[in-house]
Amino acid sequence: MPYHWQSILRINTQVSRLRSASSTAGGLRHALTLVEMLVGMAITLVMMAAVVNLFANISGGVRVRRAAIEMDSTLRQARKQLKRDLAGATCPAVPWQNPESGNGYIEIIEGQWSDSNPSSLVDGDINGANGELDYATSLIPTSQRVDTSTGSVTDGGGLGDYDDILALTVRSSGEPFVGPGQIQNAGGVWVDGATESTEAEVIWYCIENPADGSLGEAGLRTVYRRTLLIAPWIPPITFPNNPAEFFQKYDISAHFDITLNQWVPNTLSDLTKRENRFFRSTASIFPHVLLDKGTGFSVNTTVSANVQRNPADSYSADATVTAITDSFGQVSGYSVQADQGGVYDRLPLINIPGGATAPTARPVMQRLGSNPDSWKIAHVTNGPSPLTYDREGEDVILNDVLAWDVRAFDPSAPLISRNGIVLAPGDFGWQAVVKSASDTSGFDTPATNSDPAPYAWRTVYDGLVGYGAFVDLGWYVNFGERLPVAPSSPIFWGNMDPRSQLASFTPRVYDTWSTHYEADGLDQDNNSIAGLEWRNSVDQGTNGFDDNNQDGVDDASERETSPPYDVPLPALKIIMRSYERDSRQIRETSVTQSF
């Protein structure tokens, strides 16, 4: 046996003798001490904690990745649906559509908010009736400008434009549109049932959660898509005659015929006319608006809304709804008093009294408990309102949205650079960079005395990058900037044509318009101003006379009406930005459609 094995055996033998002697002398058996046990337990707990932490990290990573996958999937589906709708547009993006052509329509409504001014919840008016974000607890993503010294964790910088509306008629090249409507049963009677059509009136819009949290995390938005089937073969429908309840019950594009006292399903020709489109029956006068903020209210005051209910309702509590006016006397929003939303088993009607026009206020409902018939008003909107009651969630496309922005391409909109960043009109920071001609701060010395605004603009922005950008409609309104001269005038930079009569009712609008306003026998532009008495006649643009004694018979200037922007729409871009709250991830996608 090798020497080292012999050594080991001798040592083991000696150890065994010592243990035996010790045991014999003291009468004790060898065992672990309490200290040794505590040390072992501590080591075991440390190892277990490390394992638990490892699994927690793995689980968290899996959860984050799963959330990102789900958000990407949802956003991808929304993008796919939007792209399909735009590709199936039945109407050319060119104004002055003839109803007899049966092309339908395209309409874009540019809301009052933008990326540079995204919401009343971040306007700094912490005492305003519309409320403000809780900057210390809000989950809304922040920018790098947040002042953490005030206890704020966000400044709401992740929010963007959200209140634009896209409405158009669509033809499906694949599966037909399906929705609640009426069908003919075996006995030849028309009854409620699932209706199909290859054509539909489609409305995309977005609603923001109010500051009181009644609809969820304040400031987050939800994108909705309402699909109304174009089914002219369905006979007129009498009940319900309330527009809110009709469109809650049926997915049928229809207009209310006062003579028949019935809902008449639309054709594409009918929808060329603004008065026949979704929810226009509540606006009985030209120009038949969908989004009406209302005007003529006293500045910086509020007016309470009346909530009308059907006397047969089993729930009858009143809701306290207040309309808030802005400095222009328009209704900028609404608030619902806490715990005063009323309880309803049918959709209430909201009437805002006073003012030159009545805003189209509509309730956004919230379920109360488990009772399927018990609902309250959680929020009020100027535009379309979501489906509710037994159809809750059917029209939801995206939840937890930060931005929903519809932009039109303007080939002469300037692109400028500032600190290496290219900015287009409407981008965040645009207003801070492009100053008005009367603002001389930070400018060089006057260039020439002959210049009406003699200040060099070299210090305002670094340079002109080029022209052509997707912009908000009316991006030049209320700006007053002095910009480089474009090769041609921008087409969407100013106010709408006053003959559209939309400026006093709504934010900016693009509409393909209808020629029938010039031959409908109605006087849309009655004007008694001296020198314009010729406008008191009806349809003077098509009466065969040279009413204004210039440019010949029935020239364009004689028309009673005009599209808000009498130009073709080159292209559209819709931006969607989604937010996953648990993982704090943001995803953005866009759809561009050339016409």
Automatic annotation (TrEMBL):
UniProt keywords, alphabetically: Membrane, Transmembrane, Transmembrane helix
Keyword Transmembrane helix: yes
Biased composition (Polar residues): 537-547
Region (Disordered), start-end ranges: 537-567
SUPFAM superfamilies documented for this protein: Pili subunits
Transmembrane segments: 37-56
Name of the molecule in the record: Uncharacterized protein
Species for this entry: Adhaeretor mobilis
